[in-house]
Amino acid sequence: MSHPKVWSSLNDDYIRFAALFKKKTGIDLVLYKEDQMRSRLTGLMKKSRFDALVDFYYALAKNETLLTDTLEHLTCNESEFYRNAQRWSVLEQRVLPEILHGNERIKCWSAACSTGEEPYSLAIMLAAFRQSHEIQVLATDINQRAIQIARAGIYRAESMREVPKLYLDNYFELREHRYAISEEIKRCVRFKSHNLLADPFEGGFHLIVCRHLLNYLKDKTTEALLGKFSRALKKGGFLFIGEVEQILQPLRYDLEPVDAFFYRKR
């Protein structure tokens, strides 16, 4: 497949593609690590039988299905309930008691929530405190298809490996080899589409969970995002990040480490 518009070299093909893609979708790929985005694009191009980014872009411009598939492929990350269960135990046993103490209204945010496993994990942990506290769980992601899956709340067994049996029995129903989250928990989470790198943030959060996104971002993008997260947290609020991520010089963002992958707003 070819197109009369030819880009000048392989060195700038990605930059040109990213600029046109931003105009088309509002998503700025330049803010992400190029090698990771290139790898995802290459896999999708091979699957769709394209050799050049220029040809792939002009196909996206004409084919909404291909564009939707590309958006999903570039922005959706795998998720599961209670991923890295030891860290969720720290959240349950150390962080949440500190948040709940002295706060009748609790506001939490699962940022880049993918298909909803993490915000539902959080909502289940907080379910026992709903009679004594007013609890809000906001869950956002840039990928609208992922948000649709999250709202449906139906998951494969592979996502459930770390779910404690008590939670599995109380908050899930097995339907044709898949697990459906209870309506009680679904009502606890407010899902919406949101671009962390472009859209304004709400504020006043006691807890922000953002796991497995920072490692995809360029350093400058990460720094800007951490500053925005810090400003969105209440004093004493917590940021919970992924197990392969770390925050260098957390004091720059008025954050202090309290446990592995947990930071408190000073």
From TrEMBL:
Its EC number is 2.1.1.80. InterPro entries: Bact_Chemotaxis_MeTrfase, CheR_C, CheR_MeTrfase, CheR_N, CheR_N_sf, SAM-dependent_MTases_sf. Coiled coil: none annotated. It catalyses: L-glutamyl-[protein] + S-adenosyl-L-methionine = [protein]-L-glutamate 5-O-methyl ester + S-adenosyl-L-homocysteine. GO terms for molecular function: protein-glutamate O-methyltransferase activity. Residues 11-266 form the CheR-type methyltransferase domain. Keywords: Methyltransferase, S-adenosyl-L-methionine, Transferase. The keyword Transmembrane helix does not apply. SMART domains: MeTrc. SUPFAM superfamilies: Chemotaxis receptor methyltransferase CheR, N-terminal domain (SSF47757), S-adenosyl-L-methionine-dependent methyltransferases (SSF53335). GO terms for biological process: methylation. It is an enzyme of class 2 (transferase). This is protein-glutamate O-methyltransferase. It comes from Cohnella herbarum.
